[in-house]
C-alpha cells in the first residue's frame, strides 16, 4: 500500500481509501500525522541544517539544554549504539547482557543485542559480543564478569507489548551495581509517554535511550546520560568519534521541543485510552498494546496495525497519543 495522505489518526491510500492508523508510523507520530504544532515549529526555523557536531543551530542547543547531558543521534539504532559504546568506554569490558524478545535495531552492534533471529542469522559471523541473553522479566542472577552493561526495554514493543514484573528493573539496577556495569534502558519505542508515563526507567537507568517519537516525524534520537561522568567518557580527542552528517537536525530538534512540552499533558488520556484497549483484550501498557491477530486482515478492515511478537503472530497498536475515544471505539469495533 502507498500512503497518499495522512492527518491526525487517519491515513488515505493512493486509491482514496481511508484507514484508522493504530501504528502512528511505528510510534513516531505521537501527536498525530501532520501535527499543526510541529508544522508551525518547522516553519519557524531560520536554520534548517547546521554542521552536525561542529556547529549547532540555536534550537539544537536548546534541546540539548532541555535533555541534559546526552549524545544525539539520528536513528533509534544510533541511540542503542551510543548506549552500548558508552558502557564499553566506561567499564573497559566487552560483554553485553540482553534479553529474549529484545529489539534494539539492525546495525551490527544493536543487532548483537537484538533477539529476532531472522534479522540476526544472515550476519551472525559479524556480530560483536559476547552477548549473554536471559529470559525477559526474570532476575538474570549475578552478571557475567565481562559484562559492561545490561540493555533492556522497560516494556518490549516489537517483542509483543510485554510488560515485566514491577521488581524486574529495580533488580537489574541491583545486579548492575553489584557488577559495576551500566543499566542501559531502551525507551526508544515505549518512552515519551507511550505507556502512560513520560519515562518508565528514568530513576533507575544510567543511560536512557530515546528515539522514534522524539523527532516528531523526522529522524532524531538521543542517549541521555543520567549518571555523572558518562558524557566525559566520549572526550577522546578533538573530533567526535561517533557522529553523523544530520546529527542535531534543527527541524527535528524543533519538533522534539514541541513533543517534550505537549506529551506530559496527554498522559492521563493515554492511560484512559489504554484501559479501553485492555478491556477489549489487548495486553500491554498505555497505548503500547498487542493481541493475537492477522495484520493483513486488519488492513483489509481499514485499520493499520503492525505484526509483533514471535513469528509476527500478534498485532501491535501504538496509535498517536492524541487518538480520540471515538477513534479507539471505531478501531476496536472494526477489529472485533
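^ C-alpha cells above, recovered residues below v
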Amino acid at each position: 500500500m502507498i500512503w497518499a495522505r495522512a492527518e491526525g489518526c487517519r491515513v488515505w491510500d493512493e486509491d482514496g481509501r481511508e484507514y484508522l492508523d493504530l501504528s502512528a508510523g511505528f510510534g513516531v507520530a505521537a501527536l498525530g500525522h501532520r501535527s499543526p504544532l510541529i508544522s508551525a515549529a518547522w516553519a519557524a526555523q531560520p536554520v534548517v541544517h547546521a554542521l552536525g557536531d561542529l556547529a549547532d543551530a540555536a534550537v539544537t542547543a536548546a534541546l540539548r539544554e532541555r535533555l541534559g547531558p546526552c549524545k544525539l543521534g539520528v536513528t533509534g539504532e544510533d541511540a542503542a549504539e551510543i548506549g552500548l559504546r558508552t558502557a564499553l568506554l566506561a567499564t573497559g569490558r566487552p560483554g553485553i547482557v540482553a534479553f529474549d524478545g529484545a529489539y534494539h535495531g539492525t546495525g551490527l552492534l544493536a543487532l548483537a543485542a537484538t533477539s529476532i533471529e531472522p534479522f540476526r542469522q544472515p550476519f551472525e559471523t559479524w556480530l560483536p559480543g559476547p552477548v549473554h541473553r536471559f529470559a525477559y522479566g526474570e532476575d538474570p542472577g549475578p552478571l557475567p564478569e565481562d559484562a559492561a552493561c545490561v540493555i533492556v526495554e522497560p516494556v518490549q514493543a516489537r517483542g509483543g507489548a510485554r510488560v515485566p514484573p514491577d521488581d524486574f528493573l529495580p533488580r537489574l539496577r541491583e545486579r548492575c551495581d553489584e557488577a559495576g556495569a551500566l543499566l542501559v534502558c531502551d525507551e526508544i519505542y515505549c518512552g515519551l509517554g507511550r505507556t502512560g508515563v513520560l519515562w518508565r526507567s528514568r530513576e533507575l537507568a544510567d543511560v536512557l535511550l530515546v528515539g522514534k517519537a522524539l523527532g516528531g516525524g523526522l529522524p532524531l534520537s538521543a542517549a541521555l546520560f543520567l549518571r555523572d561522568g558518562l558524557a566525559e567518557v566520549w572526550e577522546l580527542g578533538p573530533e567526535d568519534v561517533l557522529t553523523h552528517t544530520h546529527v542535531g537536525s534543527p527541524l527535528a530538534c524543533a519538533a522534539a521541543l514541541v513533543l517534550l512540552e505537549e506529551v506530559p499533558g496527554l498522559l492521563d488520556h493515554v492511560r484512559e485510552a489504554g484501559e479501553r484497549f485492555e478491556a477489549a483484550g489487548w495486553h500491554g501498557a498505555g497505548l503500547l498494546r498487542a493481541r493475537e491477530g492477522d495484520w493483513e486482515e486488519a488492513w483489509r478492515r481499514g485499520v493499520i496495525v503492525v505484526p509483533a511478537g514471535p513469528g509476527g503472530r500478534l498485532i501491535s497498536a501504538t496509535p498517536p497519543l492524541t487518538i480520540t475515544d471515538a477513534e479507539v471505539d471505531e478501531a476496536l469495533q472494526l477489529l472485533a
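The chain has a mean pLDDT of 97.
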